[in-house]
Amino acid sequence: MYDFNRIIDRKNTRSAKWSNSDLLPLWVADMDFEAPPGVAEAITERAKHNLYGYDRLPEKYFETLINWFENQWALKVKEDWIVPTSGVVEAVFFAIRTYTVPGDAVVIQPPVYHPFARSVLHSGRQLVNNPLVKSDTQYKIDFDDLEKKLADPFVKMLILCNPHNPVGRVYTADELKKIGELALKHDVIIVSDEIHGDLILGGRKHISFLGLSEELNKNSVICTAPSKTFNLAGLATSNIIIPDKKLREKYAEYLQKRGIHGGNLYGFIAGEAAYRTGGQWLSELLIYLKENAEYLKKYLTENIKNIYAEDLEGTYLMWLDFRKLNLCDSELDNFIRTKAKLWLSPGRQFGAEGSGFMRINIAAPKEIIKNALERLETAVNSLS
Question: Which CATH class is domain 40-277?
Fold first, then answer.
């Protein structure tokens, strides 16, 4: 049994998350849990060598990774499909630069992880939004609008986020197949960010875009990493899966011409160790995260009725609706920071559709989540 209740003091450790001593931080996607023990053991063992020159991937790196995808995602991945890189954000940026040219358009589905929009615009491409539609029960894809957007001859790529950050959706096979059919119809490449694919709460399984069909594999790039699953973001390691040889060679050529050579020594050691030893740790983590999500929803229902939390199907990031407080975005941000003394992610940064929302990270000991909700309750009560 792993002790996820233990509070670890991260102040004065150069933690970006805990860099503001006045606020309780539940913003960036960084868990306040130690990584699986096997990770520290592998890093420590390598550090004893005391020579840190050029290094190769761990001997069983690809074998371990392939076994993980098969056991966790029921996915058959070949070794030569995997392109190690230094992170998913960078990999998405590289994909935009590889498969599109200035003036081309890229579709995203806001409210969505904000580096997507930044990567598109900084690359000199047009940003096209296919906003998710919020129903009473969950966010859904507007497929009529999506087809109109993909039919535009300037649109060359769709960046998919599944599980979705920040709204917590885990898309069904039917939804993903429909996206795939539209992409094939209009000759649009899918870049699927599946970095949270291991973090599925409840009985549902993650369905990778990679496993839908051989035909879809010809125009798909799948972005994965151990960073969110095992809390290894600082080690800058990801694994990009590109089944199609032409797409893969084009991607590799882009990296080679710019002198980009993947991650770092300890990142790959940590990733291999996590995938090899972290299965039980992850199983217990998912139970803990589900309990935190249920606790948060119950607390809001019973104590702060004018703040609503979306059901969390995947990730450890919950999407909170503050619109009933009737505060504009700047007022809401000020309220959260100065009254509640919390550091959350403002919804507006995920797109205009996030106005009036906040994202909260629940991957923390229950005592921290309880403290945050009590602060929020006191702050809301002060408004009346």
Answer: alpha beta
